[in-house]
Amino acid sequence: MSQRQIIQVFQEYQKSRLHFVQTVADLASRPQNIEILHNAGAMAMLRALLLDVVPSIQQAAAVALGRLANYSAEMAEAVVKEDILPLLVHSLGLQNRLYKKAAAFVLRAVAKHSTGLSSAVVSCGGLDAMVICLEEFDPLVKEAAATTLGFIARHSATLTQSVVDAGAIPLLVMCLREPEMALKRTAAATISDICKHTPELTQMVVECGTITHLVQMINSPDTKLKRQVFSALSQISKHTVTMAEMVIEAEVLPAAVACLKHPDDHVRMNVASLMKEIVKHTPELSQVIVNSGGLAAVIDYLAECRGDLRLPGILMLGYVAAHSEKLAMAVVLSKGLPQLTLCLSQEHDHHIKASTAWAISQIGGHTTQHANAVAKAGLLPKLLQLYMNTGSSEDLQIKAKTALNSILQRCTDLPSLQPLLFDAPSNILKHVVCQFSKVLPHDSLARRIFVTSGGLAKVQEIKAKSDSALQKYIRVINDCFPEEVVRYYSPGYSEILLEKVEDYEPEISKLK
């Protein structure tokens, strides 16, 4: 056999290997093929091809493995058991940018599934390798590495600490300054994943000047970047007053309030989340948001969205109202109650309804004026219905009951209270009757309406223990009316009158 023929044989073998690995990579892109490829022993063959002398074959093998690992946690565990990760990490420093990007894809596909699999990536040196890749010139390699670090960091504070200890934060901040939009997005998303865990980890991010760089990108025309920027700022703000103040001081508010009108749902939701995390800390920070127009903008936002998109806005109103009577009244005057009423009526998810009930409780629990505002918005019957509905979740029932108790103890708007006389169970009814016993002795018109509307008759039907607080309230109410009126509306009194009619003997002499 001639030299030419031998070279031709090797070339055909190389083409066959390349064709095989590219075909496997293509097949692995379709979910229905994953189990078949795995059962056929594809991972072992792909592992061998990672050691091939041809870079394109190595790269295609890595892509195929990444697609297999990306499919499920079971496939990712199989990749780990085949000892594929150490091979990838070892060869990263020796290969070209395309291989590095593919290797990062494998590490990300493994790490995304669980804390244990992320720990396997860290244990094999994958974390340090990704941090080194952040220093690469190629932005695509940086992006792939930053994405992998984000998947590792999102699982736990311990793994995030490993990312920080490996020196990733300064490099991620540098990525925010790169011109490539995709790299900026990925870096911001990874910073958000790092900051979500603890104040200590977030402090390390903040110390690198991250807030300034993030705020500078708010006005970017790129919608996906805006999403990640507001998400990161929200995660930074949630931990401490100091961090929230730093975000405010970076002059984030004017642009943030404007972005509550952004056409993208997730941009608006992340802005609402940012405001929620800021206002929860102190009355002063809440007042800053109110003064900037943030409260009114969030209430408008609630009118324009549905489902989980509403949740941060609902919580934001609750946090603002919880701080003080003045701030709670600001929510009322900004027309927050009608929007919360719509949330209770329109939403089906119990966790959203529970959060709404909690927010209403924060508004109405301050003074009589606040409680009456909630009552006049027609919220008491809605809260009672949620509390009594056996289909409501336990948390929703608790939140609705808490809101009712808090508001009823301060409410003096009797027309709003009266429907509860007919529907409320005894543990709620006692608060309703208590409020009538406070108001009726001092309001003659209210007493008249109470009689004509059937309220007095309903009170006579209530069965209460003789020594109970409820019975005490009933006596106070009855003492507001003439004895014959109370008797007239008491159960069974009509039968007594009929018996008197039957027993009555008219005097014949008078009839003549």
Summarize model confidence as the mean pLDDT: 85
Biggest sheet details:
none
Approximate strand percentage: under 5%
Q: What's the end-to-end separation, in Å?
A: 149 Å
Low-confidence stretches: none
The 3D shape can be described as elongated
Number of helices: 36
User: What share of residues is helical?
Assistant: over 70%
Offer a concise description of the structure.
The protein is mainly α. The protein has helices at 3-27, 34-39, 42-49, 55-71, 73-81, 84-92, 97-111, 115-123, 126-133, 139-153, 157-165, 168-176, 181-195, 199-206, 210-216, 223-237, 241-249, 253-259, 265-279, 283-291, 294-303, 311-323, 325-333, 336-346, 350-364, 368-376, 379-388, 394-408, 414-423, 426-439, 444-452, 455-461, 469-478, 483-488, 493-503, 508-511. Helix 29 runs antiparallel to helix 30 and helix 30 runs parallel beside helix 33.
What attributes does this structure have?
512 residues; mainly alpha
